[in-house]
Amino acid sequence: MAKVVVVTSGKGGVGKTTSTAALGAALAQRNEKTVVVDFDVGLRNLDLVMGAERRVVYDLVNVIQGDAKLTQAMIRDKRLETLFLLPASQTRDKDALTPEGVERVMDELKKHFDWIICDSPAGIERGATLAMRHADVAVVVTNPEVSSVRDSDRIIGLLDAKTERAERGERVEKHLLLTRYDAVRAERGDMLKVDDVLEILSIPLIGIVPESADVLKASNLGAPVTLADSRSAPAIAYLDAARRLAGETLPITIPGEKRGFLGKIFGRRAA
Amino acid sequence: MTKVLTDARSIRIKGRSFLALVLSPELPLDWWLGRLDDLAARSAGFFLGRPVVLDVADLEIDRAQLKGLIEELGKRNVRIMGIEGGRPSLFEPGMPPAMKGGRPAPDFEVPENEPAAESSKAAAEVASAAPVIREEVQPARATASIIVREPVRSGQSVIFPEGDVTVIGSVASGAEIIAGGSVHIYGTLRGRALAGSVGNASARIFCRKLEAELLAIDGVYKTAEDMAPGLRGQAVQLWLEGDSIMAERLN
């Protein structure tokens, strides 16, 4: 049974695209057939992060308008044969997406894939609502910072109101993915602490991704973080988050605490 | 430059409800006006001094026809206070304003035939010819209240003018609760809470943890800046004494 996941946040720049690519690759590495779909029509980026920008011929809008078949638009990843990308159009705007068209594409994708990961655009308008429309599961990407938390709260409200599941009286399963978490700054009080964010949003936590240069490095390389260096801290966080998404139960470690512990040991050794 | 406030006291805004009669004309209009004349003939002054709203939601007419209808009603001394359910294109300057958000109220008593000579058969006819008045009877209730069992998220508003609102969960920054009665929040209040919104000075606000952006009771409001810092993060109840909001820590 295919699961449709929307990666959303309301606010821009919090790491939706990075998270979509990383989670998509992590799930595909588990040998589950995965497609990542870019809904950010007009500002597409997922192709870059996936390193497939030079192989895009047709896109989501072409498929919706009937100019291309779904199989023609999908791009198979060169590193993982279970991973596919359905890119967005860069030359159109979000009005090119129609509810009927999106539904048709989703129904078709559900026949072929285990996981359909939708990368939502920022905002709460058409693109974002269509991206979440068919979701079974939502990954709400949030930075530990007040405006991001409030926007995420708004999105959670929309997930409970505007999705197909909500309209059927069911619930969309919601998970919080805390990204760009900087333990030192959180400790100093420059950033919200994990508990504060959880208290405000009151949805279960699926992972904490530390702020790291590895993320930028990976996207410049055109590789999902989980593929670029699977032993980097953010990659481990995403791999664990993907396992939790697939239903495994794992304890969550808050990045700072772990480092604080190791720091103590190293500090003592140096002394 | 910054504007200097002339008076620190805020303006009080209250809600007040009047029972309005709703007329729902039917086509053809001549025939409907004839029936209205029948009603008026039986009880002169039925519409006198009462607010009357024209419901045109199910009526297929254009602007000229609507204008004509309002004039015809004017000739019969029926003054239209507002028009409900009309498309924006129906309106022009000088017409009664568009209204929305009306709620059904108990049926209005159609007066008995004044010339009591008429038979009961005629009275039955009156009853059947009375669809001019909405027939939605709502049972009278004791103090109404609603319970929201999940957090109220940013951008959502819970509006319940009929009574109390209880939230089991938090009210996020950017969310609002508007209640005709009291507001009870079993969680953190970060957004806005407006109690007694339709004019109820005895309404109160209760919350387990106060981080509110704005609080109002019966139109008197307080923003986060005006609140005593000692109340932040505390379990608090708020009530109205005269024109000022009082607050007290619970526990």
Automatic annotation (TrEMBL), chain A:
All residue ranges annotated as the CobQ/CobB/MinD/ParA nucleotide binding domain in the record: 5-224
Keywords (A to Z) from UniProt: ATP-binding, Cell cycle, Cell division, Nucleotide-binding, Septation
A GO MF term: ATP hydrolysis activity
CDD domains, per the entry: MinD
Coiled-coil positions: none
A cellular-component GO term for this protein: cytosol
Protein known as: Septum site-determining protein MinD
From TrEMBL, chain B:
Function of the protein: Cell division inhibitor that blocks the formation of polar Z ring septums. Rapidly oscillates between the poles of the cell to destabilize FtsZ filaments that have formed before they mature into polar Z rings. Prevents FtsZ polymerization.
Organism domain of life: Bacteria
Protein name, entry field: Probable septum site-determining protein MinC
Annotated Septum formation inhibitor MinC C-terminal domain residues: 147-246
Family the entry assigns: Belongs to the MinC family.
Keywords assigned: Cell cycle, Cell division, Septation
GO biological process, alphabetically ordered: cell morphogenesis; division septum assembly; regulation of cell septum assembly
Stored SUPFAM superfamilies: Cell-division inhibitor MinC, C-terminal domain (SSF63848)
Spans annotated as Disordered: 91-115
Source species: Sinorhizobium saheli
